[in-house]
Amino acid sequence: MGRTKLWSERLHVTLPAGAKTRIAAVLAEGEDTLDLVRAAIDKEVRRRERAQKRSVPQDDGRKLPAGGEGD
Q1: Whole-angstrom Cα distance, residue 24 to residue 37?
Q2: Using 50, 70 and 90 to split pLDDT, how confident is the model at 70?
Q3: Taxonomically, which superkingdom (predicted)?
C-alpha cells in the first residue's frame, strides 16, 4: 500500500534571479524550500481573504476598506 498524498495540486513558478539563493539563506536546519514556499503562499492568501472580508462594497460596485475613502 502506498503513501497518502499530502499535496494534491501542482504549481509551476518562475522566480526572479536570486530568489532561490535568498530562500536557501533563510531556511531553518532541515527545512525544505517547498515548506517555506507553501507557508508563504498560505500566509498571503489568508491575509488577502481577511482583507476582502473587511472591505465594504460601494454603490458603484467598487470595494473600499472599511471606514476608508476613495482615491
Answers
A1: 11
A2: low
A3: Bacteria
